[in-house]
Amino acid sequence: MSDTWWKHAVVYQIYPRSFADTDGDGIGNLAGVTSRVPYLKQLGVDAVWLSPFYPSALADGGYDVDDHRDVDPRLGTLGAFDAMVRALHDAGIKVVVDIVPNHSSDRHEWFRAALAAGRGSRERERYIFRDGLGPNGELPPSDWESCFGGGAWEPVGDGQWYFHFFAKEQPDLNWDDAEVREDFLDTLRFWSDRGVDGFRVDVAHGLAKDLSEPLAPWSEVGMEPRTDGSHPLWDRDAVHEIYASWRRVFDAYDPPRFAVAEAFAHPSRRARYASPDGLGQAFNFEMQEAGWRSADFARAIDSGLAQAAESGSTTTWLLGCHDTARVATRYGLPEHPKLTAIEAAKEWLLTDGSAPALDRALGERRARAAALVTWALPGSTYIYQGEELGLHEVGDLPEEVLQDPVATRSGGREKGRDGCRVPLPWTADGPSFGFGPGPARPPQPDWFGAYAVSVQERDEHSTLNLYRTALRLRSTLDAGPGFAWVDTGSADVLHFRRAGGWHCVTNFGADPVRLPEGELLLASSPVEPDGRLPGDATAWVRALD
Q1: Is the previous residue joined to 256 through a cis bond, with omega within 30 degrees of 0?
Q2: pTM of the model
Q3: Residue 501 phi/psi, 5° resolution?
Q4: 147 burial via Cβ count (<10 Å: 0-12, 13-18, 19+)
Q5: CA trace torsion 241, 114, 191, 11 (10° rounding)
Q6: Which of 120, 144, 348, 410 could form a disulfide with 149 if both were Cys (CB 3.0 to 4.6 A apart)?
Q7: How many Cβ atoms are within 10 Å of 271's Cβ, its own excluded?
């Protein structure tokens, strides 16, 4: 595999706490990942991306990190991490780990020292502390809001407040501080020295901030990305100076390490994160946000390819992740006249998945079709664990098992993201459907058994076997940059041609459509007897051009 393997890779996202459990405590662990390496190899992925496995109080699913250079004891040890990396590498699978540079947890030794040292101390310079307003500092420094709901400032009892754009347990680090910058370079080296091949950078757009006073009111700041880099909290030009220093660390290794940015920036500014002197790649979330419409997919594809050309890299294609409702559920809900599919799924969750009615079969059919689209495109693709099983969102989790801070901080406006983080089903029976020797946390619904790996392996038409076949075929097809749209004359049909003479055709409508003449390589649903592609399906064809 070349040094630029990541430009065309299939990357499988593992949420370690819900992937596989070996000790029966109901929480997945690193040994569980190691135990499933044969499954990952058979699936045909090139790399795994591990969501945080660091010591954490789980105030935000592990993204509240106590120590960026250790393993949560509930998930294993550094030795278990090393064993996992060896097993994955022996299977030809690269390892990408989540790194969380925007904030630490409030249990991090630095933050504890900052609280103990008091106002004006060196220790507080590593974070963003400000004096409160009012005679005794009893009011927050500004009316800024957290993206999880509520205020973004938390008092510490001495007239000062600290800034947290996420949960209060996640104080933002001060990236103007030289010690913070140097410490994260050490973190990059620590994991690279242990064999990590790359990094997924959480909140990559948020490190550089402008908190010069007076702080503007939130009505002027807001959440929307800007096109000129003027937002005080994210996507400022200065962030790229930080990533240039990271690139020097990456390039000191042979082969060089790579990184992919989670950068919620305006599309016109996302390419800089993927530049050769920056992180190398940036997530393109537009496909994930697209509705089940040909025009939505076409716009996402055009945008992604344009950004790839601008950055000199490749783009990424993903349909879901640990932050959004399951793909099959989003595509199985009725189209909402005013909401995106992601927003409509959030509304559905507020009814505990009872309204509107979910068409499971339709959602699964569309999810299969969409997957074939993403794998046919130039660039790399990211698969969230469970997508290969066609899993749906668990919409009826009871309130007492919810863990996501979004559920509590939003004041009831959202139920949160726990429904896509329920532990995977590996077998049709057992206390946790093969996830581990004991019950799973959060609990799995009874219907999970029908989606288990063991069940799908016996069904040649299952989603799992479609994934295995498609990824195996993808590895043999021309992966070059060649791409061209083919005009179909229909608003319901998406058709493009790749280098090597193979075509990808998706029918978003209800009526079957004629496929190009040639060899049918694969279809997400059975084609009609006369060779036409049914609705809500994708086919790969080696055409007779």
Answers
A1: no
A2: 0.97
A3: 85, 20
A4: middle
A5: -70
A6: 410
A7: 21
Residue 537's beta-bridge partner residues?
Answer: 507
Residue 349's Cβ-count burial label (10 Å; 0-12, 13-18, 19+) is: buried
**Residue 372 near residue 540 (C-beta atoms within 8 A):** yes
Tokens of 495: 């058709």
What strand order describes the sheet that includes 160-163?
A: 129-131, 160-163, 153-155
**Token pair 């910058």 in the structure block, residue:** 181
Dihedrals phi, psi of 361, to nearest 5 degrees: -65, -40
- The DSSP 8-state label assigned to residue 7 in this structure reads G
In terms of C-beta density within 10 A (0-12 exposed, 13-18 middle, 19 or more buried), how is residue 249 classed?
middle
Provide DSSP, 342-360: HHHHHHHHTTTT-SSPP-H
Backbone dihedral angles phi then psi of residue 241, each to the nearest 5 degrees: -65, -35
- Strand positions, DSSP E, 190-248: 198-201
Going by C-beta distance under 8 Å and a sequence separation of 6 or more, which residues neighbour residue 455?
428, 449, 462
Cβ burial 385-419 (10 Å sphere, 16+ → b, else e): bbbbbbbbbbbebeeeebbbbbbbbbeeebbbbbb
Look at residue 408 in the predicted model and tell me its pLDDT.
Answer: 82
Are 58 and 48 in contact by the 8 Å Cβ rule? The answer is: no
What is the rounded CA–CA span in Å between residue 526 and residue 538? 10
pLDDT digits over 353-409, tens only? 999 999 999 999 999 999 999 999 999 999 999 999 999 999 999 999 999 988 888
Three-state secondary structure call for residue 184: helix
pLDDT at 545: 63
State whether the Cα torsion 131-133-139-143 is positive or negative. Answer: negative
Look at the block and give the residue holding tokens 């932050």.
Answer: 323
* One-letter amino acid of 197: D
CA distance from start to end of the chain? 31
Size of the chain in residues: 545
